[in-house]
Amino acid sequence: MIFHAEAVITPREGVLDTQGKAVEKTLTHLGYEGLSEVRVGRIVTMRLEAKDGDAAAEAVKNMCQDLLANDLIETYKISVREA
Amino acid sequence: MIFHAEAVITPREGVLDTQGKAVEKTLTHLGYEGLSEVRVGRIVTMRLEAKDGDAAAEAVKNMCQDLLANDLIETYKISVREA
Fold first, then answer.
1. Which of A65, B40, B59, B66 could share a disulfide with B19, CB 3.0–4.6 Å?
2. Are A56 and A63 in contact (CB under 8 A)?
């Protein structure tokens, strides 16, 4: 079976998100008001062949732990749907 | 009103996603099989004060055009929900 898999990787709560801070500052400088808690993360999408949905999700979880996410400062959310 | 706003910025179809290619190559090198079309994008989240949902979405759209996305090579999807 072929799946569309997605991993959303974001900074952990409480970890200083320097990118988010920089974006927030620049947006405010550009005149945008009323914004706070700007956080910048990554989204990785792929097509993935797997036995079933659970196997696909398990593979993406392992990919996050092996490469895509830094467990110390980031968390990740995985979603898988049939292609 | 306070909103949670999110912009997902991904490479346009047909544009060479060098980051995606590098991740795909590394994952394959790590032994992962059956994956293709790996694409890497950004996700920006924020809390945003706005008159209503439309105003919040409009503001985030302008932020994408002003700063968050490179219109030539990237597309963006915006979602807004009440906090």
1. B40
2. no
> Phi and psi at residue A20, in whole multiples of 5°?
-60, -40
Domains of chain B: 2-82 (3.30.1280.10)
Q: pLDDT per residue over B23-45, tens digit each? A: 999 999 999 999 999 999 999 99
Report d(CA B46, CA B36) in Å as an integer. 31
Contact residues of A toward B, CB < 8 A: 8, 10, 20, 23-24, 26-27, 30, 32-50, 59, 62-63, 66-68
Model confidence over B40-61: pLDDT tens digits?
999 999 999 999 999 999 999 9
Quote the CA–CA distance of B20 and B81 in Å, as a whole number: 29
Model confidence over A9-67: pLDDT tens digits? 999 988 999 999 999 999 999 999 999 999 999 999 999 999 999 999 999 999 999 99
